[in-house]
Amino acid sequence: MTNEAARLLVKELLEEKYEQYNRSEFIENDPIAVPHLFKKKEDIEIAAFLSATIAWGQRPMIVKKGMEMMQLMDYAPYEFVQNAGKDDFKRFQKFVYRTFKDSDLVYFIEALQKLVAEYGSLGNCFEHLYKEAGNIYDLLILFHCRFFQHKKPGRAQKHLSNPAKGSSAKRMNMMLRWMVRDDNRGVDFGMWKFVKPSALYLPLDVHTGRISRKLGLLTRRSNDWSAVEEITSTLQEFDVEDPVKYDFALFGLGIFEKF
Fold first, then answer.
1. Looking at the DSSP assignment, which residues form a beta bridge with residue 101?
2. Are 140 and 123 in contact (CB under 8 A)?
3. Whole-angstrom Cα distance, residue 45 to residue 38?
4. Which CATH class is domain 1-23+194-259?
5. What are the structural domain ranges in the chain?
6. Among 111, 236, 127, 118, which residue's Cα sits nearest to residue 180?
7. How many alpha carbons lie under 13 Å from residue 156 in its C-beta half-sphere?
8. CA-to-CA distance for 221 and 206, rounded, in angstroms?
9. Interval 92-146: pLDDT, tens
10. What is the distance between the alpha carbons of residues 112 and 115, in angstroms, rounded to a whole number?
11. How far apart are CA 19 and CA 235, in angstroms?
12. Left (φ > 0), alpha (ψ -120 to 50) or beta: where does 98 sit?
């Protein structure tokens, strides 16, 4: 079999699995279930960011803790971020998910509060920064800088990735997928029209990296930003307008099928 024929078979597999797993019935057990609690754009943005922030480890626990965060914010995350003060933060004292603790959550809420006060919403902030950056890589670096500009982050800084330091920025790329892609499947929200799906990068993690290498789509061994660029470039050969749609396929093959 020629390399071209083999690559065609891989594309057919990814297209099949994209169709299989890009469905609303998979939302319930995925971190995207947290922002799907809401209808208001501003609530969805905050919920998506916070849910993505803790999206590592066991998916059921990620969803559980994401829902807990929303409950602690009275299921009104945008309003809470706008108006919360020191007394309101006391309710977070027992919150912990792995290394993300109550102090980290308070820091993140305070940082979001500053950004929302300046831009009106988290989406407006990302739109402004994207116009300044011009691409996703520089957007993520710029957002990281702005997010931590008002107060020394301490240990909280490790919970927001920075591709300038080589990070794959999996969780931020995942959140961007949620907010940007719009294929009318009822999964991704497609609310941030200022970014084209073609500009997105694959949310690369252990599972998608392993499957990508097994399928011959990725040669780099480390799951770092260089690997993100390589796998996204490869997927663009299959769909230049929407390469990140194959995240559903790669993730599904890894998580559900143990491929």
1. 96
2. no
3. 10
4. mainly alpha
5. 1-23+194-259, 34-167
6. 127
7. 17
8. 11
9. 999 999 999 999 999 999 999 999 999 999 999 999 999 999 999 999 999 999 9
10. 5
11. 16
12. left
pTM for this entry = 0.96
3-state secondary structure of 170: helix
pLDDT at 153: 76
Residue 100: phi and psi, rounded to 5, are -90, 110
Which parts of the chain sit beneath pLDDT 70?
Answer: 1
How many of the other CB atoms lie within 10 Å of CB of 68? 15
Q: What is the pLDDT of residue 49?
A: 98
Q: Which residues contact 112 (CB under 8 A, 6 or more apart)?
A: 46, 49, 81, 122
pLDDT of residue 1: 62
Q: Determine how many CB atoms are found less than 10 A away from the CB of residue 168.
A: 25
Q: How much is the pLDDT for 214? A: 96
- Structure-token pair, residue 171: 């969780």
Residue whose token pair is 């299921």: 75
